Amino acid sequence: MADVKNLHPLEVKLLRHVNPGEDITAQRIVDELGYKIGQCNQAFSWLSAKSCLEEKSRKTVVSYELTDTGREQAEKGTPAVRIFNLLCEEEALGLPEIAERLGLEKSDIGSAYGSLSKAGITAMNAENKAYLKSRELPEQALQTHELLKKGLMGPLEESTLTQTEKALMAGVSKKRGAANSPYKVTEREDVVYTLTEEGEKTKEELLKANITGEEIGVLTPAMLASGTWKNAQFRPYGLDAPVSRLIPGRHNPYGDYIRWVKDKLTSLGFEEFDGPLVENEFWNGDALFMPQFHSARDIHDVYYVKNPVHCREIEEPWLSNVAATHENGGNTGSRGWNYSFDHEFTRRQILRSQGTVLSAHQLTKAKVPGKYFGVVRCFRYDQVDATHGADFYQTEGIVIGKDVNLKNLLGLLKMFATEIAGAEEVKYVPGYFPFTEPSIEVHIKHPVLGWFELGGSGIFRPEVTKPLGIDEPVLAWGLGIDRMALMHLGLNDLRELFSPNIESVRTRRGN
Predict the structure, then answer these.
(1) What is the CATH number of domain 68-181?
(2) What is the CA radius of gyration of the chain?
């Protein structure tokens, strides 16, 4: 039986409140005892470890909650609906003009127009302006708008949705709650506990000892001054408790790991590059042949800089070369994306969302042949979990040479996966990136988390290299060094790499 004198007040109050055979849930304790969810979970964990509570049932509940984007679309209409309504009033408009009239991002306009075009609702005329082929919205667009309005009433549990609504929800929700997604998906575990025989005995002892959980744990100067301590009931103090152990300082294991990776790559002849955290849309996407108004731009959910919104200028001749490549292919032999390159949008400032932006910079000054790498901090709108962070580090690199090929790239990926990450099981999966062809994703198997993506790679397309002055093949990769460290250091959660818990630094060994 647990020592009742050493129970925490959260445990004491909970045990005194519940009775044998009753269902004990976090919501019940919040409502009846005024605990916060974190306090409930802590009390449940402690009492379960002492065999005072046991788990009766567990159910995963999936729910969908409107984001700020979703609320706006529920009130004003989805981008597709708003484009349709605008074109009902106007004969024909260009996509940039539609974006300006509706006050929407041009990437959102491009995605929404693409869906309408695919459904046969819109088309482009000879002047590259959008017009309506049909004046009847697809049923799916109307149903999606109704689903968004339904979300204004509060979070929607998956079990309450119809099959049609579930299918629609898959297209308007993201598990990590990206900023441009109307709905964010949340999962919670509804766990029901019950009092054990051990818990009943502990409760009886609490009642006999008249321990209420209201006992005072800290003697304050105010209590001494007022004299209220004389009639107060205190929690017992362990005067014989051992003193804290003394441990000398040491380096952070993740910091040591990053230094080790850098040493390994420089020993292989790679030169390190770096750059500023604030970039512009030109280097972050345009220079990598990511079209400005295409859904491919949605790969990265970026953070925009509020002030100043735009950089002063983009370096020449790179701006003109890249703009021509987007519009008509320039001198790359490509047809380009066939749209009017927006010179205002390309100057917009953001926090870089990928390390590849530095590879693009390096192409303009690289030696041929040459090998380069960087350990780069990046930022994307992500829900933090065991394998994702709102900011993260990538090891980014390129290899330039007349004879480099896909076989060389696979060899580099194997080195990162097995030697640097320490994975025993590795697989290579075909992928898609607007700036590489062919493109490869490398996946590794974690003993606890299972398979997850380490990063992407490929051979830069001519539309990337030629405008930046490179005529030779270029191998490129961008791999999550946080995830490699996760495997290499034997961790099960990325957050442990950045934990403020000093104990993890004291006890965990680096490389």
Answers:
(1) 1.10.10.10
(2) 29
